[in-house]
Specification:
This protein is an alpha+beta fold. It is built from four helices and seven strands. The two termini are about 25 Å apart.
Amino acid sequence: MSVPTSPSDLYRHSLRLLLDKNIAGWIDLWAEDGVMEFPFAPEGRPGRLEGREAIAAYMRPYPDHIDLHDFPDLRIHQTTDPETIVVEMRGVGRLVETDKPYEMTYIAVVAVRDGRITSYRDYWNPLAVLEPGTDFTGSSR
């Protein structure tokens, strides 16, 4: 399957990869110089990741901690910039360590150039990392 190039289609494809726990495939969607930002990151958590390798290191352990099942309520909004979208969604699943349900509402601003993600600003709830089972450090991946 070829990788979609429109921002909306590429984003939908990225969610499918996350649900399939295909983090390597998800990382392949990024531009080499891509930037991932977390404007509400609490102290001790990264606020900005620069470059595909830094993003890969951050995301590799994700499936060890959160088992995502679905992204319901997905809404993708086009902006006046054809390369930028605003996304609203929920992620639902379970925390691997505790087997507790996981649910997070996300808003993201995503930019795509030449079929690759160049910028991803993730506005998530930083209080969620206080839950046991959400610490990404010490992963086996």
